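pasting input
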Amino acid sequence: MSINISSLLESRTACEKADAADPLANRREEFHLPQGLIYLDGNSLGPMPKKALEHLEQAIRNEWAEELISSWNNAGWWELPQTLGEMIAPVVGAASGQLIVSDSTSLNLYKTVHAALGLRPERTVIISEADSFPTDLYILEGVTSTQQNIQRRLVGVDGDSLDELLDENVAVVTLSHVNFRTGELLPIEELVKKTHDAGALFILDTCHSAGVLPVELDKWGVDFAVGCTYKYLNGGPGSPAFVYVAKRHQQAAVNPLSGWWGHARPFAFEKDFQAAEGIIRFQTGTQPVLSLRGLQAGLEIAQAVDQKLVRQKSQRLTQLFLELVESRCGEYGVTLQSPTDPEKRGSQVALHCLNGFAVIQALIARKIIADFRAPGIMRFGFAPLYLRYTDVWDAAEALTDVLKTEEWREERFQQKHEVT
Amino acid sequence: MSINISSLLESRTACEKADAADPLANRREEFHLPQGLIYLDGNSLGPMPKKALEHLEQAIRNEWAEELISSWNNAGWWELPQTLGEMIAPVVGAASGQLIVSDSTSLNLYKTVHAALGLRPERTVIISEADSFPTDLYILEGVTSTQQNIQRRLVGVDGDSLDELLDENVAVVTLSHVNFRTGELLPIEELVKKTHDAGALFILDTCHSAGVLPVELDKWGVDFAVGCTYKYLNGGPGSPAFVYVAKRHQQAAVNPLSGWWGHARPFAFEKDFQAAEGIIRFQTGTQPVLSLRGLQAGLEIAQAVDQKLVRQKSQRLTQLFLELVESRCGEYGVTLQSPTDPEKRGSQVALHCLNGFAVIQALIARKIIADFRAPGIMRFGFAPLYLRYTDVWDAAEALTDVLKTEEWREERFQQKHEVT
C-alpha cells in the first residue's frame, strides 16, 4: 500500500490546507503545547492535556489536602487501577474486565511472563526479539535467573525467525508491536496465530502502539499485553503502565508478585493469600495516586477519538516527513531506518546519520524536539492528536538547514559526555 | 520505663501549656490541616506539607507542561529515586548510597527477599511473623510459589518465638519494626543479632516507624529494609516506597526484577543485563514522577527535625491518650491492645471494643479521624509533627462522649456492607 501525499510535498501552503481540512485538528486545543515548539517526542513523553491540570489540582488541593484518607473511597482512589484500565480497554480493543493500570511496564511484563509459564508448565522456552526495548530482555533475564529450567531464544540473533524458533518446547512468545528504534510494525494477528499453532502463548508489548494506531487485543487472540501510558496516551512523566490478561486465562493465571492489592479481601487482613477474581489479581502493592490522577485526562481524549482516523493521519504525517527528508537530506548522508511501506510502520520515523547526536541537539536548539537513540538513530515521533502537517514541513525544513549549513558542527551541540 | 504525663491529665489548660512549650510546635505550620479536623490517621496517610503543593505545581506546570522530556535531565527526574533515597537515609540511620525510593513496599520486599535468598543459597527457610501486615506474608507466598524449595515459618503461629524457629536452615528473617495493628515495637537490634548468630540475614519493614521514631539501620546491622513514605513521611497518597540494601551486600545482591532503570548503562540500550553498581541495581522500571515530586517536601521536614524529639513527643502523646482513655472509657468495654510500656510502643494506640467500627464512624462525624482494622481494632495514630496535646485531650473527650451517650448506635454509623 502507498499513501499519496504528493500534493503536500509541493508547498507549505498545501500543508496549511491539509491542516484546515484535518478532522483531528481541533484536538490540538486540548493539549498544553509550549509556545513555538514543534514536539516530535510524544513517543517518549506526551504533552500535558489541559484537563490533566484540573484533575491534578483537584487531586492535590481537594482529595489529598482536604479530604485525606476518605478519598480512598470517596474519590475512588482505591479503584483507580481498574477505572483507568476500563478507559484504556476500548483504545486497545479489549472488552471490559481485562485491563488494569498498575506499576511499570517492566513489572507487568515480569508478572505476565511468570503467569504464562505457569499456564504451560511442561514447556521451558521463552521467545523474544533481540531488538526489543532492552528492559523487556532484562526482565526475561530476571525470570530465567529465578526459574533456572527456563531458557530464552531471540528472534533476530543469527537471523533466526519466529518460524525457526517455534517448537513444542516454547511456552511463551513476547514481542513488541512497534520497534522502539526503527518504528517497524509487526503483523501481530499473524504472529499470534503462529504462536498458538505451536501451542504457546503470546504477550504483546504495546508501548509504541497504544493510542496511536488500532490495537485489537481481543480480536487478535493476544493472551497477555503490557503497555505504556506516558507516550501516546499522554499520562504524564512515568505514569503507571497497563497490563491486559485475556479473560480465558484469568482464573488460572498466577501473579508471582502477590501483594495485598491483588487479594480477594484486602481489608479482611487475612494471613493467607487468596487471589482476587479477574484482572485484579494482577495488582500488587499500593499505587501512586497522583501519577494515576494525572493520566485520566489523556485517556478521556484517547477514548473520544477514532483510532482509525488517528492511524490515517499518522501514516500521512510520517509519509510526508520521510518523503521530504529523502528528497532533501539524502545528499548529507541521512538514511531511512524505518519501513517505507506505511502499513509496516508505526508512528515514528528513524533516520541514521553519522552525527545524529549533534544534529538532534541543533534541532532542539531550534525548538524542534526529537531524540537520539544509540547507536546513530535520530527518532522523530508523530502524534496525530496535536501535530500539524505544517509542523512536519517546518521540521523537515529545519533538518535540511541544519545539515546544509553544518550547524551541527558547533561546539555546543557535541556530545558532552559518553553515554556510560 | 514510664513517662510522667500526670500534669497533663488534669485539665485541657495543662495541655495548652504543654503545647506552648513544645519544641516541635512550629512544625504544625508546615502542613495543610483541614479546618477543625483532629487527624489521628497519619499512620495511614500523612497530611500535605504546604511546600508539597509548590513542588507539585512546579512539576506539573513547568517541568511536564513546559519543559517536557528535557526535565528527565534538567529537573533531575531520572535521579529522583536516588535523590529522595539520600534524603530518607539520615532519617533511618543509613549512610549514603544505600537507599532508593522506588515502586511499592510489596515489590521492594519481593526484591530483597529474593536477594537475601541468593546470598544464602544453601538455606531454604524464610521466617516472618503471623501478625505482619498481610502484604508481607502474601509476597513471601509469591516467592515460595516461584522457588519451590523455599519454605516459610511464622513467629506467633503455635506460639513459636524467633528463638524456637531459628536454625541452620534459615536464610532470612523479615519482621516489622512496629506492628500495624497493635503498635507493638520490636527490639530490632537484639533480633538482628540473634538472626546473624544463626547465620541468617535480616529484612526490616519500617512502614510504621520511619519518620516517627529513631531507626538505626546501619548501627543495628540490618541487612535489607523496606518502608513506606506516605504515612509518617507525608509523601502523598501511594507515594513510592523505599528500599535499603546494606553496602556490604550490594555487590553480590541480585534483584530479580531486573529492568532498565537498574542497568549499568541504561541509555546504551544493550541486549544483556548488567546490574548497575550499588543500590541503583534495585531499581526496575520507569518511576511515577509526579508522585515522587510530591514526596520531596515531606522529606525536607523529616530531615530537619531531631527524631529523638519526635520520639519523645510521640511517647507523651500516646501515653496521654491511653491514660485518658483508660480512666474514662474502661467502663464501656474499651480495652487497650497496645503495649503499656512506652518503650515497646510505636506511635499509635490500638483499642478494642465490640462496636469499634461504629465508634470510629461516630468520631469521624465529629471530625476526629482515626481508623478501624478488622477484627475490632480502633487505631489512633499520633504524628508529633502536627498534633497537639490539646488534640489528644479533645479526641479522648470525644471518644468518651460517643461511648457514654451511645451515639455510635445511630443507624448512620453502622457498617453498610461487609468487608468482602
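fyi Chain A touches chain B through 89 residues (CB under 8 Å).
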